[in-house]
Amino acid sequence: MNLSIILAIAFGGALLTYFSGKISKKARDVLAVLISLVIAVILAFFYNTSSREIFYTGFLDFPLILRIDTFSWFFAFTIAVIGSFSIIFSLSYIRKKGNTDYYYTMMLLVIASMIGIILSGDLVSFYIFWEIMSWSTFLLISYNRGPAIAAGIKYIIMSVTGSVAMLVGIISLYSHYGTVIYTELSGLLYNASSGYTIFIFVLFFIALGIKNAIWPLHVWLPPAHSEAPSPFSAVLSGTLIKIGTYGIILLIYVIVKINVFLNLGEGIVSARYIIAVTGAITILIPTFIALLQDDAKRLLAWSTIAQAGYIILGIAYGTSESVASGMFHFFNHAIFKALLFMVVGAVEYRTNGVRDLNSLGGLIKKMPVTFVGGLIGICGLIGVPLTNGFVSKWLIYKTLIINNSPFLAFAALLGTWGTILYSYKLLHNMFLGQLPEKYEKLERAPFSMQLPIVILSLAIILFGILPGLPLKVINSIESGFGLEPLTINIWGITSDTGTINMLNLFVAVFLIGIMIWLIFKGSKKSAGIGQYDNYAAGTTVPKNKYHYSVDFYGPLHRMISPYLRDFIDDFYMSLARSIKNLGNGIRRIYTGDVGYYAIYIMLFLALLIFIQIKWKLW
Amino acid sequence: MDRNNLGKWLKSPGKMGQKYSLHALYFCTGCGIIEIPPSITTRWDAERFGVIPVATPRQANLFLITGYVSVKTLRYIIRSYEQMPEPKFTVGFGSCPINGGMYWDSYNTIKHLDKYIPVDGWIAGCMPRPEAVFVAVTHLWTLIDKGMADGYNKYRANYQYYRENQEKILGKLEWPPLFSKNIKHEEYRTIA
Amino acid sequence: MVMTTILEIIFIILLAGIIGLFFLGLSRKIMARIHWRYGPPITQPLIDIIKLFNQTSMSHGFLFNFGIIFSLAGSVVVLLFLPFGRICPLSDSGGLLVILYLMLIAPLGLALSGGEAANPYTSIGISRKLLLAFGYELPLLLILLTVMTHYNTISIVEIVNKQFQAGWSFQHLSLLLPGIAYILILPAILGFRPFELIQAPQEISSGPMAEYSGKFLALTTIQHAFNIFISISLFTNLFLGGAANPGYFFLKILAVFVIFLFANAVFPRFRIEQAIKYLWRWPSILAFAGLIIVLITGKNF
Amino acid sequence: MNFLSEYIYYIGAFSLIFIGLFIVLAKKNLIKVIIGLSIVDTGINLFLITLGYIRGGTAPVFSKPGLKAENMVDPVPQALVLTAIVIGVAVLALALTLAIKLYKHYGTLNLRKIKEQKW
Amino acid sequence: MVNPILLIVIPLGLAFVVPLFRFISKKIEKFIPFFALLANLIISLTLFPHVLEKPIHVSIGGFLPPLGINLVAGPLGILFAMLIALVGFLVSIYAFAYIKEKDQEKYHILYLLLLTGATGVVLTGDIFNLFVFFEILCISSYSLVAYFGDKPGIESAVKYLIQGAVGSSLVLIGIGLLYGQFGTLNMADIASNIHSVHSISVFIPLVLLITGFGVEAAIFPLNAWLPDAHSSAPSSISAILSGIAIEVGLYAIVRVVFTLFGASSILTFLLFLGVITLLIGELCAFNQENIKRMLAYSSIGQIGLIVFALSIGSLSGINGGLFQLVSHTLSKALLFLAAGYMIFRSGSMNISSFEGMGKKMPYTSFAFTIGAFSIVGLPPFIGFPGKFMILKAALFEQDILFTILVFLILLATIIEGAYFFRVVQTIYFKGEKSTPGQEREIAPLSVLIPVFIFVGLIVVIGIYPKLITEILESSASELLNRADYIKNILP
Q1: Nearest chain B Cα distance for residue A517, angstroms
Q2: Per residue in A528-554, pLDDT tens?
Q3: In degrees to the nearest 10, what's the CA dihedral of A287, A291, A294, A295?
Q4: D26: distance to nearest CA of chain A, Å?
Q5: CATH top-level class for B22-170?
Q6: What are B30-72's pLDDT values in tens digits?
Q7: Which domains does chain D have, with CATH numbers?
Q8: CA gyration radius for chain E?
Q9: How far apart (Å, rounded) are the C-alpha atoms in residues A394 and A406?
Q10: Of B79, B83, B192, which is closest to A526 when you measure between CB atoms?
């Protein structure tokens, strides 16, 4: 099997889907799902293989290379799977809206380009796919119109900013070392001056950080994630921002190499520490901001930034445990954040686009499967033991504490407790509490929505109990990076400094749960009552008078909201405004008066002569 | 007081539990409420007998009707009573719930509380002193022991009657009937 | 080996339940005595539980039931990770971090259960409960991080062992401050005064428990009992050197509990903002100072 | 004085050019500007002619006997000037046409007022 | 082998035949530019392989180079001729449906003359001849800008004319000075003697020529005519002006600077000038509401980028600059054509009037999007290799100055991206959601065909840039190796 075939299927499939949509809608749906699944299945066969091929030689002097190893397999496979679930989810989500052909094509194009990025073996093809991803994402973010337009423009401007910076980095590397192929570049920076390495680092981090939404570069993410169509939000949040993560790992561990990276700077001003602290800030501030959100998807978007902070923290910290936790958390986050966006999407679908947390409620009675998906999703997000988020978070806390960085650990832990608050708010305000009367007749989510929700929920539990499965892959990636692999078994991790065994936990929780359930079951049965039979000081609960999920964390809101303006966003907006004003000002030199124009010509002539007389240029 | 009688505890734990853990719901339904604070605080300390006030009818099994009951209050009394879990006991406090008392000819108080909800015991007087509360509690113990404090069963058995009386004075009630018909020993719908 | 573990587990759970209920009764008795009352018998919580199990109850649905089970199971599982004297059945499964995480299952479970009740009071109560938890977690995390950094381990068993060798944590200045901070936040963890604002019976009708009746109330009472036991024995293990045998351990936690009760019987109630501000100020500053001292003086082990 | 008589044509040509440019830069009436352009053209033409001019030279006709090549005027600038004149006329004609049209639209030829196309 | 002089003769001759064809049939006249440029395209394509081996030069009238006027068809010239023929050909197809006036023969004559002028400029080897062709180009473009005779058109044409006339006067003075010093008009001849005279006598003509041609090439601050003229000309002419006229002006400058004067020291100045032009163009375009004005300012920016790239002075820099030039020609022509037809339909040049165009005119909108992406430099479109090559050339200098300039260029790219993406969003995502009954107004085939040929070229060259890199490389080396150029013409 050839790697270029995957790309051919992916890109060709995207175009094919568009044209098949002109013929038959059924065929298009089937084709879209089929293509995404086929990519995932083909990628699955590449497990534990490594190969490398030149797939195109026509671009200037650069042979474009594809390669696969465990590292890229891990990312590519995750992306393909999440992508295909999102497409399955889209089947009914998108049916009500227009432009369906366009939607599927762009979706497949985004997935294809992401896989292209992951599989590429040199920086030029990395960049090409990166840009294709950027613009196709842009075209899909604005799909919902209205506020999505501003979101899209914000995204693409930041994205272009990042990618031009990265382009400079790539070309600079090429001009220094004469190659852009990972394997040839790797370790070459060992001899470079640290100033140059930092230059390269900064350039790449602008691009990767914007895509990964590291804190001061995150401003595109909340509007983009919240305004995009929900299945695409799942792709965005679950996989697209992880492309940034992939790039960062690639940069640090493949191109720069771990030994150079760890020796870059000293103590607190080392690259490692600075990036890790940035990661910690990325955890804290967005977590607090997420607490204040009233829009379900915007809340999840801020949460995505915060979780990306964990990943960055883990990857940049540079111990083998932290890197493992970063990659494991990437995997977990892809699953549970995709799941949560799908849950919100299902609710949005049934309630005709309502995402305002203050006007939903009580949907557990109407959409139980979706609710369970949401519950498991937030458990994974929080990292409740026996869900997948737990092990990755445990690893990062542990390595931070053992290696004597308690403040980073504090940030990570506090972020988790903030996560509890906002994720509970999400669940409570959508599914729990009072069911508004207008939603009395709501139906369950359609099957094509329930299917990915159920599978992803099961995956969360599965990888929570058997963290060894992904950790095994991560281990072999780490040994490729020159890090010491962890000692793992299928149930957990053993080491001198701290051991975790999910089997013990699972059995304990399971048995005790069963025990308590038996006690519960054994005692008197309870009568079922509805929400209108509530205690309300003797009165009946009024039906549509008020809604008590509004302002759920009011007291905290009052306390912290003055300190939590997104001043970074304000900064960027004022920057944009001042560029606009500058442009408007500069435009005034074209006064419309031809006399001035003639004077300009003469002035230019005078300037040229002056320069010659002054400096003798030629 | 047989609270420390281990044999009785083993024989009928439910009954003993009911006796010595009376969680009282006391709405400020009338002037009688003024006697409740002394009885639960330092001077008389009802907690020695396991009588403590609770905040919601869900957690309560003793309903104290403290004083006169106006028509408006009756609605809330009925609602709260129906929300209490079984077994539950009602005690009318003062003479007004018994026969109207000094409001015997008032147009908007009810004269006989037991027409609307079943009452297991009465404390006469205007006002009864806190000691009288304890007398009522000990009396209630006896009734529970003998199985005679079964107002909640009566309510179930004669629900039509009560509901009719309630609707006669209150007009149509907002909540649906608690029991569909007069049921003797049938549990209502269970799910857990 | 497995048999001993299982026996240990059963032993710990039973003992913790008994001790927790005893503490609950004791607290009521001591409170009454401080109020110049006679007070209920010390077995009163048990009587309440027996009664509650014999009552009917109302349920709002699946999650209403499940949340309670979830919450209680979370509390019980924590017990298995805490050294009780020298007994700690699951000492090798994650250490203090797992305990931290498992401690959050209980409030989460109650919150989920209460959430389905769709009662206004419940919603307000849950909101307060989670906010209060957020409030006390900030100092608590700093405290635990100080301890873990000081001993450079995440295993609570090892922390206890090291205290056997080198004396109680209280002897080190760096851990004395966090220890005091822990005592300051203990009422918030347990929901005692002045942090009774979660239930606040006069205000929001016992908050998250407003819809609980019968067995639900019984299970929450048991959970509360476990919670008292867990948070006090965590303190004992971290700062008072644990104990070599269960009896000695019991005496230690009893002493801590009684001191704590006397300290807290006289307070009125905070509002939620005041509570969070308080928690983020003094205990956090103390714990932070401890952490700084640990980082400056270096690790002792 | 010698300088003046030596370079009189150049001085004249460049004076014309600068006068024309000044008119283009300073005047606001379109017609005057066009006249200025035309003056510039004339100046340039004069300049080109001067380049090839030799004082007392003859026409560059080789077939005529008795004429020395050194005394012949360079014919190329004259050819250039012919072309340049044609171009100048074309521009002038076009400019005037446009001026008429412009006047129809705006009712004025004041270039300071014709400022709709700007920024 | 075909004589390259045909490239000039065919359109020039046919231009004046157009009125004659009116007598035969009025319908036929619009096809004359089509055939003329098709012929040109074919001729330049057939010349192409020969030129790569050895530049062709033709002496007109049999006089040998220093004396007579000669044509030099080097790789650079043929590259430009090919571009001119291609764009002219496609735009002439576009004009079938776009130019609807009764008396169209003026349009076609002037159109052919414009292209004749452009082709002449790039093919000639004589500096005065270059000026003459340049004037043909300029005069026909003045009149084409005013073709519709509406208020903005006339105003812009007048302003364009005044600036252009001043510019060409300067050129003519410069040529006169050159002739006065060297006694010859042949470029190769001048080039071979350029170092024999005092530098002050060289730099004045150089400065005059740069300024004069700079007006047409729209270098800042000589570009004030451009936004007016581009926005008020007919869209087909805007496409030609933006895609060809500016480029030809640029060619003249490049020819003068590289071949005629070999003045590599002025390149540093041009480098800054390019960056400033780029920044100012993009900043001015940033908040434009008029789509064509926005595209015009964007052209200024792109010219700045090309000037920057050419002024790097290395082989790869010139290579990148020429690539960017080709890419700009194709993309900007596409953008003007697509936008032009959308303006034609919506009746307004305001960007907000494009709302919902994505539904109404799906193909045109799609083409516009491709053009916009290409201009911004997104792969896999033609703009990307161009930008890539320029950055590569700049960074290969390994100079901190170049790094700073590169960052300024990228800043401009971001600004450019911002306003182009805004338009793309307006086309697709703004306005009312489409209703099922809404009918599409698909553009006529004669619009779609050229537009989609442009799209095809943009995508194909974007994916396979090697298609044109060969000729670009030999063009670049032609520019750099003055000695070869001189030797070829004056053996």
Answers
A1: 11
A2: 777 777 787 777 777 766 667 777 888
A3: 20
A4: 7
A5: alpha beta
A6: 788 888 888 888 888 888 888 888 888 888 888 888 888 888 8
A7: 2-106 (1.10.287)
A8: 21
A9: 14
A10: B192
